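About this split. The held-out portion is used to measure sequence recovery: a designer receives only the structure tokens and must propose an amino acid at every position. Recovery is the fraction of positions where the proposal matches the reference. Here is one held-out target exactly as it appears in the evaluation file.
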């Protein structure tokens, strides 16, 4: 079987190890890292688009053309 290399110390580790036997560093696959980063990016994008939508759609409380006259 092929062995993997620890991303922290460079030691050969078994293919499905969660920790490096030499330094104890947690091992994550590149696929999981990319998937996590993509999820965070999509979440941030949804929040930004939602905020822009709310700001653009929000009507002012007292628009300039709608004035109320106060008589003494």
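Reference sequence for scoring:
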């Amino acid at each position: 079987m092929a062995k993997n290399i620890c991303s922290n110390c460079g030691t050969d580790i078994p293919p499905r190890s969660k920790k490096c036997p030499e330094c104890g560093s947690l091992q994550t696959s590149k696929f999981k890292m990319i998937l996590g980063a993509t999820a965070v990016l999509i979440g941030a994008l949804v929040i930004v688009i939602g905020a822009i939508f709310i700001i653009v759609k929000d009507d002012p409380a007292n628009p300039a053309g709608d004035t109320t006259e106060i008589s003494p």
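Annotator remark: The two ends are 92 Å apart (CA to CA).
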